[in-house]
Amino acid sequence: MEIKITKTKKSKIHEVDMNNIPFGQVFSDHMFVADYKNGEWINAEIKPVENLSLHPANLALHYGQSVFEGMKASVKRDGTPCLLRPEMHAKRINLSAERMCMPAIPEELFLEALHKLVGLDSDWIPPHDGSALYIRPYMFATDEYLGVRPSKSYKFIILTLPVGPYYTKPVSLKAETQYVRAAHGGVGEAKAAGNYAASLYPAKKAVEEGFDQVLWLDAKEFKYVQEVGTMNIFFVIDDVVVTPQTDGTILKGITRDSFITIFKDHGYKVEERLVSIDEIFEAAEQEKLSEVFGAGTAAVVSKVHKIHHDGREINLDTKSYKVADLAYDIITGLRNGTVEDKYDWIVPVEVLEAV
Ligand SMILES: *Cc1c(COP(=O)(O)O)cnc(C)c1O
Predict the structure, then answer these.
(1) Ligand 1 atom 12: residue of nearest CA
(2) Measured between alpha carbons, how far is 25 from 163 in angstroms, rounded to an integer?
(3) Which of 165, 182, 210 is the last residue of a domain?
(4) Within-domain flag for 65
(5) Does residue 199 register a pLDDT over 90?
(6) Are 103 and 51 in contact (CB under 8 A)?
(7) Residue 89 shares a structural domain with residue 205
(8) Ligand 1 centre and the CA of 343: distance in Å?
(9) Which of ligand 1's atoms lies nearest the C-alpha of 195?
């Protein structure tokens, strides 16, 4: 499909201090937009970021058909803009869409839109390690209809935002024993907007009780660990890397997948299996638990220094973490070109003339 490109007449890039970017508020010059109507994707266009006009009966607002992705573009030391495993994100948004009765976005359209948009706004990628151009592809229903049924029309948009190095202070976790994130048969495996709305209340409670994030347990027994906040979780027990198996309730993180490959490649034994909260406390008691960390595109690694569960607590010394640092260093090195890309994960983006 032909992507129409309308370039901005006046870039806003000079208004932004790339060394001090407030998270989630600064958008680059352009966005990609396409419409789904009568069974096909049409009107593919890159244009200056502008407001949308929506009918008040927009189906997504009422019944929540809305899915998204989160990825990052970075620049290598030689100045080449690049993406990390973009085809994995193209596939995953379609898995999320299928669960929500939404149409697939052809992978070629997703990838071409991504390349053109990032190529056009490549000056917006902050060059420092840990900084990046955060990319937010998302799709939502656009039918004007107040009935519970799948929408017939949709919008697919890609926004990009320069972001500084993510908050990397070690975090404390409250293992949640009242609220759940995802149950078997539910939508935990989809990157669906409503999942995040549902997590806000327990997250707020955790913060009120003095914790940074929620450690989600399974919905049936409150026994098995699922995820941390909006990240996948890893444990190092007796030098073995352990992460919960994806069983339909856990988001299949691309960072999670990359980490498993990297750890195996560096000689670690990696186990994807059920991990109970009791096992974690027992391992800590026996001094076998050496690391706990979250994994996701935004922060890459988020080290955990404390876990609270039902009146008991584990405290960890994050300064001695080696496995978490290994993962962070490899991902960062692949992105800036200082680590050889033997996995073929890095995809260069062709720079396009912005004005
Ligand atoms: C996006 C997300 C992750 C991390 O996925 P990545 O592909 O690694 O960014 C983990 N858990 C949840 C709930 C998520 O939404």
Answers:
(1) 230
(2) 9
(3) 165
(4) yes
(5) yes
(6) no
(7) no
(8) 21
(9) 13
Pocket lining: 244 vs ligand 1, CB cutoff 6 Å = no
Ligand 1 centre distance from Cα of residue 88 (Å): 12
- In angstroms, the CA 114 to CA 159 distance is 10
CATH code of residue 14: 3.30.470.10
Q: Is 306 contained in some domain?
A: yes
Q: Model confidence over 60-92: pLDDT tens digits?
A: 999 999 999 999 999 999 999 999 999 999 999
CATH no. for residue 212? 3.20.10.10
Determine the residue of 91, 297, 328, 345 to mutate for testing ligand 1's pocket, defined as the one with the most ligand atoms within 8 A of the Cβ atom.
Answer: 297
d(CA 171, CA 253): 20
| Ligand 1 pocket, mutate which of 134, 136, 231, 250 (most atoms under 8 A from CB) | 231
Residue nearest to ligand 1 atom 10, measured at CA:
231
Ligand 1 atom nearest 69 alpha carbon: 1
Please count the other Cβ atoms lying within 10 Å of the Cβ belonging to residue 18: 16
Query: What is the rounded CA–CA span in Å between residue 176 and residue 182?
Result: 12
Residue 326 lies in a domain: no
Last residue of a domain, one of 117, 148, 165: 165
* pTM of the predicted model as reported, rounded to 2 decimal places: 0.97
One domain, residues 154 and 200: no
Distance set, CA 303 to CA 95, 241, 260, 276, 299 (Å): 29, 14, 17, 19, 10
How far away, in angstroms, is 1 Cα from ligand 1 center? 30
Q: Provide the residue range defining the domain that includes 123.
A: 4-165
89 and 217 in a single domain? The answer is no
| 16-25, 290-299, 344-353: segment of lowest average pLDDT | 16-25
